[in-house]
Amino acid sequence: MKCRACRSKAIIDIPRHNAAFCGTCFDAYLIEQVRKSIEEYQMFSQEDRVLLAVSGGKDSLALWDILERLGYRTIGYHLDLGIDEYSVESTEKTVRFARERNLTLHVEEIAREAGGSVVDISKVTRRPPCSACGVSKRHLFNRAAKTYGCTVLATGHNLDDEASRLLGNILHWQDGYLEKQNPSLPEDEGLIRKVKPLNRLTEKEMATYSFMKGIDYVIRECPMSFDAKQLFYKKVMNEIEKESPGTKQAFYFGFLQRRERFYPETGDKSPPPYICQVCEEPSYSEICSFCRLRLKVTAPPGDESLSRPRTTS
Known about the structure:
With about 325 residues, this protein is α/β, with parallel strands linked by helices. It folds into two domains: about 10-270, 3-Layer(aba) Sandwich (Rossmann fold); about 270-313, no CATH class. The protein is built from twelve helices and ten strands. Strands 5-4-3-6-8-7 form a six-stranded mixed sheet, sandwiched between helices. It has a two-stranded antiparallel sheet with strand order 1-2. Helix 3 links the parallel strand 4 (about 75-80) and strand 5. Helix 2 packs across helix 9 (about 205-210). The N and C termini lie far apart (about 70 Å). The relative contact order is 0.13.
């Protein structure tokens, strides 16, 4: 197998592009894909300060490495989810990555911020673990970006993640999620701009890059996601991609090209009608989702009064 660019021995083949690359040419290809996404979707500029949500997995750590290579100003933020050995390993690898490269990293514990680990929150609120985690991350990531003076929040979601998420949202016609499925969501009423610079690259490509660069990352999936529908949709998309290379890319980018046709920007969206009584962030109820979750977790046994927002006449 020869490199498409220089004809030397290839280390990776990319069927959807009908191409293979050697290490040097693959590195150039991958960097260009990230640069293209940043520019095409106007994610951020050299003047922006980017908060990287780093989990300890290959995608977020590799993204941090890439953005540093491209000369962007970055700060890392890691949320310890309190999931036993998995979280211990994730935090250790993230801290080591930042220390070895002399990068700025802030670490917070979800137990300190939400009153319990993801496992605790799930049990008390009766939410699936991924749902409890998602609510907490959205709030804490956004808060961290503002706290550390960042203008944009970047996550390591790749093409596989986005295509499988799109499949699930379309199968259930989740219009609210479909409307927001975009690699660059602008800042809005107290919410920091959110971007996904790896949306053109697959899990395989990110794993190859991490191996080439010697990035030590957590390999196993989160143990709380064992029954997550997202993993099932990803498996389905992988089977389709195996039979028809390029399907993920065509499916995902086809949607993005047609997105405004289905979900036009009308310009008449109303801002959240409330300011959360607890955290003072914009909210669609008197107490935001995260604060309701936290109050329920920390309420005395049998007392649910704090988990219900007060009503006004």
